[in-house]
Design goal:
The complex is a heterodimer of chains A (about 250) and B (about 110).
Chain A: H1 13-50, H2 62-67, E1 73-81, H3 85-94, H4 101-113, E2 135-140, E3 144-151, E4 160-161, H5 165-168, E5 177-189, E6 192-203, H6 206-245
Antiparallel strand pairs in A: 1-6, 2-3, 3-4, 3-5, 5-6
Helix pairs in contact in A: 1-6, 3-6
Chain B: H1 12-31, H2 35-56, H3 61-81, H4 83-98
Helix pairs in contact in B: 1-2, 2-3, 2-4, 3-4
The chains are: A alpha+beta (about 250), B mainly alpha (about 110).
Amino acid sequence: MATTALPVAAPASRTHARGQFLRGLPWAALGVAMAVVAGWALWYAVAWVSYGHAARGGTPDFLLDRFVPAYDVRERHAIVVGAPIAAAWGAALAVDMERAPVVHAIFGGRRLLLANTDSATAHLRLGDLEAIGWGRLAFVPGREIVFGAVTQPWKGDVTFEPLAPEAFAAFDTPGYVKIAWTIAVDSLGPDRSRFRTETRVIATDAQSRARFRRYWSAFSPGILVIRWQMLRLVRADAERAVAVGR
Amino acid sequence: MKRVLLPWRGSIAAAWATLVPAATVMIVALLRGSLWPGALAGAVLTAATAELALGLRGRHGRWSAMAAGAAAVPLLLLALVSPAAGVGAALCALLLIVVDTPRRIPARTHL
């Protein structure tokens, strides 16, 4: 009697699916790379277009208004800290931003991209910034510090030159940008506070404005990541200090 | 009766049209220090890119894999800025992707 051969069972679908997945991984990685490049290009374009049109609302900072009343770039960031204002202030002054791996990578990448051989800025704390040229423009003990400097950040070996507070607002030597930024803590109650930072940048002439515009458009993603990482480190350190002290 | 909740669902063209506006809104929000609006825009961007990946599967498997990889990039950026924002955006994107509509993009034979 004739028999019909039964068909050979198809390969397990799980094996096939796994093979498809593995074959797709290099293309997924290519997709990540293309999205990063396209995303950076879009970021550059958006930052370029919005340069000089910084938002002017929000909580005023009267100290910064004294030194940079008009600005091309304004960044403001804040984070609520589950710790008293004194703990948040102490953490802010002592934070080492390069403790965060991503910040360390960004600083290292900047040194590489701009051929910066100076390692003096490595592992600096906010309380030590005067050692690398930032000037202290204003200081409210336990509450706020305003740092300021004139600089040319588009250069590889960037240097910061401090100015006296009374000379900062009027400084207009061509070829520089003036940067003033504040770190401040506000009380939200006996066990809560807010750590905030605001940075303002103004160029002294059209050529510097164009140079900083290119620099800011290209590097602002990394700069913003550093700011946010700083906020998180301060919060973590302040809350840890309170927990340890209990 | 089931409703189409999201404008880009069921249309590759609409998914493409969502990408640049969502990415722009996300970038503007992050530049202005608005983390959670940026995370929401990032979630929309991820969901739209994931929809592209779903629609391109089959004959255009390589493009589908590339889109799937690209969908993770906004979440990676948000996670660098804030892990909480990255996780929130991922959950929001997942919700947008799986929300019930009658017009899930079928596997296409052309882009």
